[in-house]
Design brief:
Chains A, B: Residues 87-214 form the GST C-terminal domain. 2 copies of one chain form a homodimer. In chain A, a hairpin with a 2-residue loop joins strand 3 (56-59) and strand 4 (62-65). The radius of gyration of chain A is 17 Å and the shape is globular. Chain A has 2 domains: 2-81, Glutaredoxin (3-Layer(aba) Sandwich), CATH 3.40.30; 88-202, Glutathione S-transferase Yfyf (Class Pi), Chain A, domain 2. In chain A, helix 1 (10-21) runs parallel beside helix 3 (67-77) and helix 7 (164-178) packs across helix 8 (187-197). The first copy, chain A, is built from 9 helices and 4 strands. By secondary structure, the first copy, chain A, is of the alpha+beta class. The first copy, chain A, has a 4-stranded mixed β-sheet with strand order 2-1-3-4, with helices on one face. Chains A and B meet through strand 4, helix 3, helix 4, helix 5 and helix 6 of A and strand 4, helix 3, helix 4, helix 5 and helix 6 of B.
Chain lengths: 214, 214
């Protein structure tokens, strides 16, 4: 498998964690999102993924896109260890936590959105950072409520084994810390993220140890 | 089943289509997103879904949130008619199309984001509408490329039966038209959306025929 990735992309980071949790080897192909206006906007990459976003996974001669779709694919093709629980209601809960991050927080703070804010709407650096922290605050607060208010939360987002929701939570907390967000009202989120950080699969997926890290 | 819904929410619209495609009866509970500052921000609804977003589905004594997680749940609990194909690579494709809409387009144009633009960043009505059209343009262009460039596209997004991707596409095209977006460069997207519009399951899910439509 070949993963088109950027060290700091949190969508790519999710897939790296999932691949590691499943013990799957892959070749990392770096796509630089900033240099030269972004390699993801150049024809070579757009031929692979017309959406021009990372990650993309090559497997069985096909190109797969969208981080959550990729993780579900890995789950179906390599079921063990499972990243989703067995019961439908529990699977729905884990997917909802993952999507509360992947749909409600991450896209609003994506690089291209921040660039639009400054270039098209003339937002200042301060306004851009306030935007970033606002959506992380609102979004992770909702995730905290989902986690803290449910007995199914364990050492990880769901029970005591890492799964899809943790694959999403850890990169989002990484971003939050990078931008200096106040996370003091989210003790469950932090407890789980810090617990994950102790695992090899999460450590090897971290931005700072990627081959393209700067 | 009880669906907490708002007639114009495109996330709720997706779930309404999926419920109809599967022939499942449900009770619609309207949550007004505008009146009185938004019923979704009031304690009664936040107790149900702390993220304060619609839709939420009540089933088996549990509250499920996040539209795609809800549709996957319906797929697992009521497998027929299937909204996802059988093969893992095909399932990944359908999920990727769905997420290209549900993650990359919709959240950036969500009501609360538009409100932040005008209230916090002082965006004009014109700038707000340009923002809206920009992200629909970029996002649906990517979806068009995913559809037009793949032989698996049929009368619907994947083959000749409606599925998860169509549940996402139709509400997004509805929004695009409502905001006067130029969709002339997206013939495949339009062809499929118009084909869906002929089906009873899609017609009954449309915003204008909901009990809370204005």
């Amino acid at each position: 498998m070949k993963l088109h990735t950027y060290f700091r992309s949190s969508a790519a980071y999710r897939v790296r964690i999932a691949l590691n949790l499943k013990g799957l080897d892959y070749e990392a192909v770096p796509v630089h999102l900033v240099r030269g206006g972004g390699e993801h906007r150049q024809p070579a990459y757009l031929g692979l993924n017309p959406a021009g976003l990372v990650p993309a996974l090559e497997d069985q001669g096909q190109v797969l896109t969208q981080s959550l779709a990729i993780v579900e694919y890995l789950e179906e093709t390599h079921p063990q260890p499972a990243l989703l629980p067995a019961a439908a209601l529990d699977r729905a809960r884990v997917r909802a936590i993952a999507q509360a991050i992947a749909c409600d927080i991450h896209p609003v703070n994506n690089l291209r959105v921040l660039q639009y804010l400054t270039r098209e709407l003339g937002a200042s650096e301060e306004q851009k950072n306030a935007w970033y922290r606002h959506w992380i605050g609102v979004g992770l607060q909702a995730v905290e409520a989902m986690l803290a208010g449910d007995a199914r939360t364990g050492a990880f987002c769901h029970g005591d084994t890492p799964g899809l929701a943790d694959c999403c939570l850890v990169p989002q907390v990484f971003n939050a810390r990078r931008f200096g967000c106040d996370l003091s009202a989210m003790p469950t989120v932090l407890r789980i993220a810090d617990h994950c950080a102790g695992l090899e699969a999460f450590r090897r997926a971290a931005p700072e140890v990627q081959p393209d890290a700067e």
